[in-house]
Specification:
Layout lengths: L16 E3 L8 E5 L5 H7 L7 E5 L2 H10 L4 E8 L3 E2 L1 H9 L4 E8 L3 E4 L10 E4 L1 H5 L2 H7 L2 E4 L3 H11 L4 E5 L1 H6 L3 E5 L8 E8 L10 E8 L6 H7 L6 E8 L7 E8 L5 H13 L2 E9 L4 E2 L1
Parallel strand pairs: 2-3, 2-4, 6-17, 8-9, 8-10
Antiparallel strand pairs: 1-3, 4-5, 4-12, 6-12, 7-10, 7-11, 13-15, 13-16, 14-15
Helix pairs in contact: 8-9
Length: 299
């Protein structure tokens, strides 16, 4: 799962690397991680046609690649159905001027993989990104393996293939096993099957007009005065909010940003009226984007 990386323990941070159908014309989509990561799966499905996907070590470098024109689009994971909000990516949405142009929901299905010829009984250590290890604790405890955190899921698979260690395994996507020549020992090893990660797509331009169902994402802050937050949220009455959460402001102690996802287009009359009301009440507000909503899952 492409989520904020822990400090690398077994792998170095991945260098930018391209992978995709470069012979096919189409835009470049940036993601965090290595080829075979869930971020790359999101990037491959972010648009009807993708010419190339390109991995970067951090979320900020994904955004910078899009800002500089090195990539046409970028995908950032914002929430996981089991682990909740992905805070580094959410904070980045309020910092960047890139608008959100779409969303992709990826089914996270972890596989346990090792070098060809290695059996479950040979494994002593298992490598993956920390959130993926946390999602597979049942399997790890059952076998008494040592869990070792790596920079990302696909990176752990790549490094295992390079090390050639026959007493180690990795947890990553099936695509990672195929890319790095590893054998899948067991599939769907996550503790809970209801495991999805929602990615937002960023670009330097607003999305093209579409009749598809939309979401509108908004971040705002209000004065630290009794009742002001309730008044701002009351402007959204009658709308379906698919997400609402608060995050500390990094420029002001004990002040918070409120992130809201609204079902509907920003120019729908009811949504536009509600947004105008929030803007009047807020001390800070920013529409992150109004974009086609995901209609299904990939991966």
């Amino acid at each position: 799962m492409s989520v904020p990386a822990t400090t690398p323990q077994a792998t170095s941070a991945p260098e930018p690397t391209g992978h995709g159908t470069q012979e096919q014309p189409g835009p470049t989509v940036a993601f965090q991680g290595n080829p075979g990561s869930y971020g790359e799966i999101a990037a491959l499905n972010a648009l009807p046609v993708v010419g190339e996907t390109r991995g970067y070590p951090t979320f900020h470098e994904v955004a910078r690649a899009v800002e500089s024109g090195e990539a046409d689009y970028g995908v950032l994971p914002v929430e996981n159905s089991l682990m909740g909000a992905i805070l580094q990516a959410i904070d980045l949405l309020s910092d960047t001027e890139l608008p959100v142009t779409g969303e992709v929901v990826v089914r996270v299905s972890h596989c346990l993989m090792a070098l060809p010829g290695v059996d479950l009984g040979d494994v002593a250590r298992v490598y993956s990104q920390q959130p993926a290890l946390d999602q597979c604790t049942g399997l790890i405890r059952k076998h008494g393996w040592q869990a070792v955190a790596a920079h990302d899921t696909a990176g752990s698979a790549r490094d295992l293939a390079e090390r050639g260690a026959r007493d180690e395994a990795a947890i990553a996507s099936r695509r990672a096993a195929e890319l790095y020549g590893l054998n899948v020992l067991q599939s769907e090893v996550e503790d809970e099957p209801f495991n999805f990660t929602r990615f937002m797509t960023l670009a330097r331009h607003e999305p093209a007009p579409s009749d598809a169902p939309h979401k509108t994402s908004l971040v705002f802050a209000v004065r630290h005065t009794p009742g002001f937050l309730l008044e701002a949220l009351n402007e959204l009455r009658g709308l379906n909010l698919s997400r609402i959460e608060s995050r500390p402001r990094r420029d002001r102690a004990w002040s918070y940003l409120i992130y809201v996802d609204i079902e509907g287009r920003a120019d729908d009359p009811q949504v536009a009226l509600a947004l105008a009301g929030v803007l009047r009440k807020a001390s800070y507000a920013k529409i992150l984007g109004s974009y086609p909503a995901a209609t299904g899952t990939v991966g």
